[in-house]
Amino acid sequence: MSRLWVRFLLPLVLILATVAYATGPLVERLTMAWFRRDLDIRAQVIGASLEASLAGDDAAGKERVEGIFNRVTRDERLYGVALCDERGRVLYASTLFPAEADCRAEPAQQASAQGKLLELPNGPFHVATRDFETESRRPRRIVLVHDMSFATRRSSDSRHYFILVFVGIGLVVALLTMIVAQLSFRGWIEGLRSMIRRRSLLDLDGFRATPELRPVLREFRRALRQLEEEQRSRDESRVEWTPASIRDVLREEFSGEQVLVVSNREPYIHERRDGGIEVRKPASGLVSALEPVMRACSGTWIAHGSGSADREVVDADDRIAVPPEKATYQLRRVWLTPEEEEGYYYGFSNEGLWPLCHIAHTRPIFRSADWERYVQANRRFADAVVEEARRDDPVVLVQDYHFALLPKMIRERLPNATILTFWHIPWPNAESFGICPWRQEILDGLLGSTIMGFHTPHHVNNFLETVDRYMESRIDRESNVVSLQGNLTAVRHYPISIEWPPRLMDTIPGVRECAAEFRRRHGIGAGVRIGIGVDRLDYTKGIEERLWAIERLFELYPEWIGHFTFVQIAAPTRAKIDSYRNFGEDVTRLADRINARFGREGYVPIVLLKQHHEPPEVYRGFRAADLCLVTSLHDGMNLVAKEFIAARDDEQGVLILSLFAGASRELPEALLVNPYDFDQCARALHAALSMSPEERRARMRSLRAVVRDFNVFRWAGRMVLDAAMVRRRSRVLKHVRNWDFLERLPVAP
Ligand code: F6P
Q1: What are phi and psi of 414, to 5 degrees?
Q2: What DSSP character marks residue 348?
Q3: What's the 297 CA to ligand 1 centre distance in angstroms?
Q4: What is the pLDDT at residue 417?
Q5: pTM
Q6: CATH code for 255-336+375-493?
Q7: In the predicted model, is pLDDT for residue 300 greater than 60?
Q8: What's the average model confidence in pLDDT over 29-37?
Q9: What secondary structure letter does DSSP report for 528?
């Protein structure tokens, strides 16, 4: 308020006073002119009334005339009166009639004529004359002298009143202006605030701004678009994404900030076997994608320690440096009790959320006891994140459906963290998701993220519709940003991928050697074409469907019987769950039945390998095969498809890919199939086996270009760039919310 007084009110009062002071003499002149006119009229009126009494004989009436004059001059303003003859001599005069007011002045021509001003030591006087003739026709003149000191007094009084009234009015106007300005300023600020809070600044196009806010709105919109375009062009300008690019982006955007990854599955599992300890890499798309990224940014990976020898190899803080061959980052293990693992991992995650999100016709099971364990396990991981965070604003990459509650838990304890959550599996439509009894808690937890990532735009839309249906939040559809209780979450699609070029390829022999060794190992004859499938033994992967398709191939194209063998690598997974156990048994039965029907001495149509294979073995299999079958019934992305492509540097091999895997959006040069349509799949198998080497090369070349350009470093890099943008934007918004800058603005109406 004091600043307001100094900057606005004081200058205003000074200006008003100066103006009033400068106009004072004018006011004085005006009032004097009014008084003179007034006295002119008055003098003529008094003169006229005296004229009647003086029309008689002068000499006889001296006493009487002077008596009249003295009576008349009792009026405080009329100072003196005199009667003069035609030669200008005073015949009679009132007592105080000043000698200086002589009778010889020019006679006034008319009754309203202006009197003269006479300045005497005792003040200013107004001298007016009136000429007339006596009854005996002698010219006479009445001289009336009015004291004007009252007029000067009053005109200077009016001058002071005028200044006071002027300043007073000025002050009232100023105060009113200030009040109105303050009110509209507040309204303006409120408008801006609601523009930011209610519509989150990201829905600016939909925001209906008041006229005075429009220029500000335009500016904000321009600044935000510029920010986004800058980021986008940074992604597009990088033709190649490599481990070095990720390191650069992290250094530039999050200079020296800490990167923490949280996933359920750990990248290295230590198992006790035959008296020793073995390190195993799990069959997990998530691990294949993230591991190269972590090697590049050397942070800390927090995961469930699930291996039988995991505890034996960690330090006192449950950490171990990995990869074993050349440590570049830390693995922090979190321990879960068997009950927690049962409820959180097998129960809520894999009997509830997994079938809920995959439309694979296995009914989800939701038990409240599992939910409690899920909440508990999420808390345990949140504790680990807080323990590992060396600063209050780490970059945390939360992975998958095991940790739907974790983003919010982290946000509550590390409000400045940048949380990138990636959902590796599909997100179903709102109606399907709605059957989950804890749908709100899950959405609320996920919306603690800075960025929520999915593989495809379709999953992004499903997620936004689910949020729209079940949460009291605001969604900006243009930028796909959700605002929930002041927290902004950008929902984006980032197709996950693999490392390019895969490090593994340096150690894998050539295609011929791989094929020869593979044939030898699995007893596949020289003239027999090979198909391969590599999956976890999971009912969403469409393993039964692909076996039925192979059976149909033999029915529709019997020429392939004896000339085509399909090798299915099926890594056992989640075997404690009934549906998985039953599924594994069903697959074995089906493979046995087909083998019994079409197999013969020295020829096995289906080779089913129900065991874990380390990545090098898998890559050898890919290089040995003529075709790879990926027939997921529903899949977030499916990295097996991309790994097969990466393994084929000979530009041969055909990929048959399910339309229901996210990868199909990026890889149209594959033979795309509906895995439920066995005839179609059989025809695709036949086409792949009959395809010319030129066509195989053309397709594979194009597929390899996609996987090379859209590799996992681009996946992570884009997320990090977007996170940096959201982080910068949040900082801008935080400043705007505080309104510091508005306080510093000059207060102007
Ligand atoms: O890719 C989906 C995914 O669930 C990963 O998140 C997970 O690591 C992988 O499949 C394997 O599943 P699990 O970790 O349960 O063996």
Answers
A1: -130, 75
A2: I
A3: 22
A4: 94
A5: 0.71
A6: 3.40.50.2000
A7: yes
A8: 82
A9: -
381-to-230, 375, 402 alpha-carbon distances in Å: 35, 10, 11
* CATH topology agreement for domains 255-336+375-493 and 509-709: yes
Q: Which range, of 30-34, 497-501, 733-737, averages the lowest pLDDT? A: 733-737
Instruction: Read off the pLDDT of each residue in 691-701 and give the average, rounded to a whole number.
Output: 98
Mutate to test the pocket of ligand 1, among 263, 281, 286 (most ligand atoms within 8 A of CB): 286
Q: From CA 640, how far away is CA 651, in angstroms rounded?
A: 17
Q: Mapping DSSP to helix (H, G, I), strand (E, B) and coil, where does residue 80 land? A: strand
Return d(Cα 293, Cα 747) in angstroms, integer.
51
Q: Above pLDDT 90, what percent of the chain?
A: 60
CB neighbours of 433 closer than 8 A, spacing ≥ 6?
356, 357, 427, 439, 462, 466
| Ligand 1 midpoint to CA 580 (Å) | 14
C-alpha Rg value of the chain to the nearest Å: 50
- Separation CA 395–CA 619 (nearest Å): 33
Cα→Cα distances 404→357, 375, 424, 591, Å: 13, 9, 12, 37
Atom 7, ligand 1: residue with shortest CA distance: 284
The DSSP element (H or E) to which 466 belongs, if any, is helix 457-470
- Ranges 80-94, 180-194, 317-331: which has the least confidence: 180-194
Express each pLDDT in 334-379 by its tens digit: 999 999 999 999 999 999 999 999 999 999 999 999 999 999 999 9
Q: What residues are in contact with ligand 1 under a 6 Å CB criterion?
A: 264-265, 284-286, 400, 424-425, 536, 573-574
Which sequence spans correspond to the domains of the chain?
2-153, 255-336+375-493, 509-709
How far, in Å, CA of 409 to CA of 381, rounded?
9
When pLDDT is averaged across residues 618-637 and rounded to a whole number, the result is 98
200 pLDDT above the threshold of 50: no
Distance between Cα 344 and ligand 1 center (Å): 14
d(CA 121, CA 125) in angstroms, rounded, equals 10
- Are 408 and 272 a contacting pair, CB within 8 Å? no
Cβ contact 687:671 at 8 Å:
yes
> Which of the four pLDDT bands, split at 50, 70 and 90, describes residue 748?
very low
pLDDT, mean over the chain: 88
Element housing 334 (H / E)? strand 329-334
The fold adopted by the segment(s) 2-153 is Beta-Lactamase (3.30.450)
Length of the chain: 749
Does residue 737 carry a pLDDT above 60? no
- Looking at domain 509-709, its CATH architecture is 3-Layer(aba) Sandwich (3.40)
CA of 741 to the centre of ligand 1 (A): 48
Closest C-alpha to 94, from 78, 103, 81: 81
Which atom of ligand 1 approaches the CA of 399 most closely?
6
∠703-285-371 over CA atoms, to 5°? 140
First to last CA, the chain: 15
Q: How far is the CA of 288 from the centre of ligand 1 (A)?
A: 11
Beta bridge partners of 117: 126
Task: Tell me the one-letter amino acid at 357.
Answer: C
In terms of Cα–Cα distance, which of 548, 542, 538, 527 is closest to 606? 548
Atom number, ligand 1, closest to the C-alpha of residue 425: 2
